[in-house]
Amino acid sequence: MIRQGAIKYGLVVLLVAMVLVFSYLQPAFGSMRNSFIILQSVSIVAILALGVTATLAVDGFDLSIGATAALAMMTSSYVLVVLDGGTLAAVVAALGVGVLVGLLNGFLTVQMRIPDLLATLGVMFLLLGLQLIPTEGRSIAAGMILGDGGSAPGRFSAAFLALGRTRLFGVVPVPVVIMLVLALITWLFLERSRFGRLFYAIGGNRSAAWLAGANVSAYRYGAYVISGVYASIGGILLAARMGRGDVSSGNSLLMDAVAAALVGFAVLGAARPNALGAVVGALFVGVLLNGLTMLNAPYYTQDFIKGAVLVVALMFTFGLAKRT
Amino acid sequence: MELQDTTKAFGPHQVLKGVNLRLPAGQVTALMGANGAGKSTLVKVLCGVHRADAGNLLLDGRPVVFQDPRQANAAGIVTVHQQINDNVVLSLTVAENLLLDRLSDGRLGGLLGRKRLAEQAGPLAEAVGLNVPMDTQVAALGQAERQLLAIARALAHQPRLLILDEPTSTLSDAEAERLFVLVERLRARGTGVLYISHRLSDIRRLADRVVALRDGVIVLEQETPDLPRAVQAMLGHGLGEASHEYRRGGRERFRLQQARLVAGAPPFYLSLREGEITVATGLLSSGGMGLLQAIYGLAPLAAGTMYKGGKPWRPRSPAEAIAGGVFMVQEDRARAGIIPGFSLRHNLSLPFLSHLSRLGMIDRRREAERGKHSLDQAGVVYRSDRQPMSALSGGNQQKLMLARWLQQPCELLLLAEPFQGVDIGARRDIARLLRRTADERATLVVCTDLEEALELADRLLVFNHHRLVGDHRGEQLNMEQVLQQIAALPEHIDEELR
After folding, report:
1. Pick from B420, B455, B382, B451: nearest CA to B15
2. Same domain for B175 and B209?
3. Boundaries of domain holding B339
4. pTM of the predicted model, to two decimals?
5. Does B308 share its domain with B175?
6. B241 lies in a domain?
7. In a mutagenesis test of the A interface, which of B326, B327, B339, B348 is the best target, namely the one with the most A β-carbons within 10 Å?
8. In what residue span(s) does the ABC transporter domain sit (chain B) (predicted)?
9. Which of A198, A200, A213 sits opposite B341 (nearest CB)?
10. Is B353 an interface residue toward A (CB < 8 Å)?
């Protein structure tokens, strides 16, 4: 009984306990303002984690999400600044990049039969390199000097920047709203729709799902397209928040998002990739890091803490569950 | 070597029910048994992978107990397993494979010169007539050479008893002949051989003695092989208990014309009618399963045309087959049927989610209601339909797999070995359920076990070497003839069909 309780509620209890302890030690932690700072800081990671969750559900694994987000960020910045395009063009171009990357990953894993981890690792390197080529390795900002000596004609439009910086009703940051909406859609899709059910069926036993009539290839493609699109949404929000296309800012996204998705396995004893878990997982890491920072923990301990959280959560999921 | 009253159970499932088996030196003992008879468990007990629950293992008349395969090896009992690639390491060279056992126990020391390896391995390869360079990667070898390599490795232990599990299943005739010559040489040297195979031609060629295993018991031991009788013993013959009312089919639902399961076989015609349960039997991989796979869109026929309701039928995937009203209950439900993380309810509804959904969203109340109804109809015993599949016994799991495909009406229901890992009570239930629902569709079943086949069949087809060699009505069954057709040797089949 205790073990089952620990498996099911362990992580949620830990999250609540953490919030209580931090609020007690540092009253500013529990303020409305800080709560939204935490939410805002985890929203992009959570969106990427939702995308990985879709690929994990079909027993795939998208390692290219960080690079896809970075490429989407550079693409939207490039459209706005270098091509002097509008907000809509920038967003559509970035989303298009996400779709294309998803199709590429699907092609490599389904058609070429490359193991998911290897295929998406390859694509990750490919994209990290690709995003440097159009700007000759430089970051994109308004007024930057182009290769032909002239300066870039465009700038980040107010509407585009609003995506990352405005607060709904003056309180809730737009990225948080987008994250919550995507979380709800993903949850409905995975838990309540027949497509999601087939995602999990394929992840659980691919050949049995195929023999029961599931179009396995199409669903695996679909999972990577979802993941690519979510990553590019993350990239757009990142560009809007920073107001520039920074060549190195996608770096930590991959590991944070993967960690969040994997921590999510342990939420409410799901023992499988799930949308709620991915968000709670991202939140868990965000709360821990924010709280420790407010308590003056040095920044360089952050990666170690994230790693420790991931390992403990995986123990909850696999180590404890296996023996029941 | 001898086994006395050996039993072995896995959970509630009694696999070996008191096996007595004598394996004399210098003789080839052939072991025959249908799917699930307990052959592989028997082998694993002999070679130390499993320990028997009860019974004695005698070596030269003295009882021995093996804790693990290594001890069995040391006592001279060496096994070449069915999957050739389990016996060799593909990424290593021939020499490294031959010396693997010595490498892992450290007898060769830590530093290995290529030359020294070749010197050590050379004689081992020579002993089995394996003539390939010692530094060839095993991945570059053909199946026969890998098989010889595996045997060479086995012989390096200087076995007193060599167990060969289906050694020719992936070999061509010429390759198999090389193996036979080797086995004969071993026999002449006084090695005992336990030869497990369903290939009658192998057994006729090699066996000094034949034993048949059925349902965990040795049912026949022959000092001079008589193959038709051995086949009968292995497949069972209990007509009496399985008799039922035989029904004649109504309207034709499905037809095959000029069909060939393999190139070069004579073509056959087959009409499947509603209300009638047609069972295809024959030895393992004799063609029945190939027929089901062709109909379900998993592999094309070698030649011929299929018609469903008068229209040509050529599905390219299970999804297309299902959409056209052809459903299939798979053999080996753990691998090909069950989604392990899913509850009973979700496993049940899997193929028909679109019927339960609106705008893509599953109507969960309807799913639950229909699921419970189906489970009750099929007589599945369960506590909650939210339980995982592992909570059910084998028989109940199989009932659920059948219930899955009875949820929607179909033109043709295919079943592959529906009684695999199912106890006798559940078997009766499943047969009754199939018969009760048979009216609105055609039903085609593949059963290797004759007794199981007869329990279901209104009509019995016999396949042998991918040829349809017999088509019998249930009420006018001539068992003698059926057994002959099952056991006929390949060289005689085509003559008789002409």
Report:
1. B420
2. yes
3. 252-497
4. 0.84
5. no
6. no
7. B339
8. 1-240, 246-490
9. A200
10. yes
* Same domain, residue pair B68 and B202: yes
Q: How far apart are CA B412 and CA B294, in angstroms?
A: 13
Binary contact (A271, B362; C-beta < 8 A): no
ipTM: 0.89
Pick from B209, B235, B261: which residue ends a domain? B235
What is the widest separation between alpha-carbon atoms in chain B?
75
Helix (H), strand (E) counts: chain B: 20, 22
Indicate whether B469 belongs to any domain. Answer: yes
Do B215 and B259 sit in the same domain of this protein?
no
Would the pLDDT of B101 be above 80?
A: no
Return the bridge partners of B193, or none: B28, B162
Alpha carbon of A217: minimum distance to chain B alpha carbons (Å)? 12
Contact between chains at A213 and B319 (C-beta distance less than 8 A): yes
User: pLDDT, tens digit, for every residue of A7-45?
Assistant: 778 788 888 999 999 999 988 888 888 999 899 989 999
The Cα-based distances of B24 to B30, B161, B210, B240 in angstroms read 12, 9, 12, 37
B343 touches chain A (CB under 8 A): no
Q: Are residues B230 and B350 in the same domain?
A: no
Whether B140 is in a domain gets the answer yes
B247 lies in some domain? no
Which among B318, B353, B361 has the least Cβ separation from residue A211? Answer: B318
Strand B459-464, strand B77-80: pairing: unpaired
Distance from CA of A176 to the nearest CA of B (A): 26
In chain A, which residue's Cα lies nearest the Cα of B323? Answer: A213
Q: Do residues B277 and B253 touch, judged by C-beta distance below 8 A? A: no
Cα–chain center distance at A203:
20
The alpha carbon of residue B292 is apart from the nearest alpha carbon of chain A, in Å, by 13
Query: Which tens digit of pLDDT belongs to each residue from A205-220?
Result: 999 999 999 999 999 9
> pLDDT: is B80 or B362 the higher one?
B362
* Interface of chain A toward chain B, CB-CB under 8 angstroms: 188, 192-195, 197-198, 200-201, 203-205, 207-215, 271-272
User: How many domains is chain B partitioned into structurally?
Assistant: 2
Query: Mean pLDDT across the stretch A59-73?
Result: 96
Number of inter-chain CB pairs under 8 A, A vs B: 72
The letter for the amino acid at B71 is Q
User: Does B212 share its domain with B291?
Assistant: no
Domain boundary pick from B200, B235, B270: B235
Per-residue pLDDT band for B413 (boundaries 50, 70, 90) equals: very high
